[in-house]
Amino acid sequence: MKSIARPASLFSGLFLLLLLMLLACNKSSTGIQPAPGGQNVFPNQIGDEWDYFYVDSLRGKTDTVRVRVVGTRRFGADREAKIWQFQFKDRVDTQYVEIRDDTVRFIPDLDQPWFNRKFVLPLQVGKGWKGDFLSDTSTVVSKGPLTVGSRHFAEAYLVLETWRIFNDYGTVRTRAVPGVGIVQMHQVRSVLAPFINEQWELLDFSLK
Q: What is the CATH number of the domain that holds 193?
């Protein structure tokens, strides 16, 4: 759903990322703070599910991938993330989603939490931010209606992420709908040669 540490899949392995704005900032006794409205943009409750049509253009593969929020895990000194599972036909990948302060992070590996895809709230056209790892930058490019399959959404944000580190460079185009999460994503990455070209498109979802 860059592969959201630069793994071979946005929703699988880095995330392989994509999903984001009015919660109260109530600080828990552990010091963990949810993002204001983070749940309203990127749902992140145990039991939430999304089904995506997945295309790996480089390998000529397609799949229907079910993404489920299945639990919670603590990491670092005082951080907490939800556990997301990506059920492919031939494997199950895991990724972690943290909503903290004003930031949503999709983290493939909690041992290297700086490798992630990051969204800074609230999303506003023209707003930009720097990623946690070197040259990552993201910009909210546009906001408007979007049709995905048979579903029409009145408001979707397009976020463009780019990076270039020596011979590793790429882009991720993510479309997020408030209250639904990531509805489309296209990731292109090259490491000396084309390495990733993946597309994700929402088929269905069920939220708690």
A: 2.40.360
Q: How confident is the model at residue 39 (pLDDT cuts 50, 70, 90)?
A: low
Print the domain residue range for 84. Answer: 38-206
Domains held by the chain: number: 1
Asked if residues 9 and 3 have their Cβ atoms less than 8 Å apart, the reply is: yes
- Residue 38: is its pLDDT beyond 90? no
* 3-class DSSP assignment, residue 161: strand
Q: Which residue has the tokens 């931010």?
A: 129
Nearest by Cα to 119 from 155, 160, 84, 154: 160
Q: Which residues contact 40 (CB under 8 A, 6 or more apart)?
A: 21, 22, 23, 178, 179
The whole-angstrom separation of Cα 127 and Cα 30 is 31
